[in-house]
Amino acid sequence: MHTLAGLYLVTPDWDDTAQLIEVTEQALLGGAALVQYRHKFADAALRQQQASALLALCRRFNKPFIINDHLDLCLALDADGIHVGGTDASVATIRAAVGPDKIVGASCYGDMQLAQAAHLAGASYVAFGGFYPSRVKKYPVTTPFDIVSRACAALPLPNVVIGGMSAENCRPLVAAGAHMVAAISSVYLAEHPQAAARAFAQLLERRA
Description:
The chain is α/β, with parallel strands linked by helices. It has one domain (6-198): Alpha-Beta Barrel (TIM Barrel), CATH 3.20.20. Helices cover 44% and strands 17% of the residues. It has helices spanning 17-29, 44-61, 71-77, 88-98, 112-121, 147-154, 171-175, 185-188, 193-207; strands spanning 6-10, 34-37, 65-68, 81-84, 103-109, 125-128, 159-161, 180-183. An eight-stranded parallel β-barrel has the order 1-2-3-4-5-6-7-8, surrounded by seven helices. The longest helix is centred in the N-terminal third of the chain and has 18 residues, at 44-61. The chain is globular and about 40 Å long. The two termini are 18 Å apart.
């Protein structure tokens, strides 16, 4: 069973598969703990190509590979898990579809009720955010920082924080108990992705 802790790498909307694999590999060398494939604009053929290549890469590093939203792709590739929106029904439906052994992550935004419902529906972890403005995702930056400590007290699940994360600004959230920090731009657009990933990984290792 994979440990859900550390740098949670989320892929950008890159069509260049070779570049995507190259930078993801650098991040894994730097200590990324999980990889989520998220490409909101890819067609089915590109999604299949990129997800297959990323899965093979994650297998080499023995790190979990998670698909965003696409249940059919997760099942077809036998990926390690899937990340979905935080509604009770979708988490329960996804858990029933993938069985007990896959990772199921749920976006809970800034809503503890969603997180509790996701837990009861069978989520493996809950994700909170956005906490800071993101260069990639568009959402209200309204998530209260204390939701992390409240979740740690109320739920027996790991949590992940997302939204404009850098190795500097995630520190108060890690100090509050965040198990994972999700990053896209801070790693994929960094001049040295391996070093960027290592900065996150070392911070989270110190917490552990």
